[in-house]
Specification:
With 117 residues, the protein is α/β, with parallel strands linked by helices. It has one domain: Rossmann fold (3-Layer(aba) Sandwich). The protein is globular, with a radius of gyration of 13 Å. The relative contact order is 0.18. This is Response regulator receiver domain-containing protein. InterPro entries: Bact_response_regulator (IPR050595), CheY-like_superfamily (IPR011006), Sig_transdc_resp-reg_receiver (IPR001789). It comes from Pedobacter westerhofensis. Pfam families: Response_reg (PF00072).
């Protein structure tokens, strides 16, 4: 049985690629282009949040800090995404549960999902 995954990514091409791959693997995927979707987390109730570090008007690591500071969302695994390896340090400081470098290695993506299945 698949997981419910929330992907917050401002690049439409990356969003669509992730949706195709994750849907093919049997997951229920909710896509968003910015952090405003996080206001609806209670209704969405995702199993994992994939959060791009460099969104249009905000940083994924800042959003991650907010999620981890809130008792109702602190337990949701948050995986930061970025093409820059330096973001891996931000992910640890922000309390993220993981980091995946773009371009994605599909085996790594699957391994991260399986870790929380």
């Amino acid at each position: 049985m698949g997981l419910k995954l929330l992907v917050v990514e401002d690049d439409e091409g990356v969003r669509e690629m992730l949706k195709l791959v994750l849907n093919y693997d049997g997951h229920d995927v909710i896509m968003a282009k910015d952090g405003t979707i996080l206001d609806s987390l209670a209704e969405i109730n995702p199993d994992i949040i994939f959060l791009d570090e460099w969104l249009c008007n905000e940083r994924g690591s800042d959003l991650c800090r907010k999620l981890k500071a809130n008792a109702s969302t602190a337990g949701i695994p948050v995986i930061l995404l970025s093409a820059l390896m330096s973001v891996q340090q931000f992910s640890v400081q922000a309390g993220a549960d993981g980091f995946i470098r773009k371009p994605f290695d599909l085996e790594e993506l699957t391994a991260v999902i399986n870790r929380y299945a």
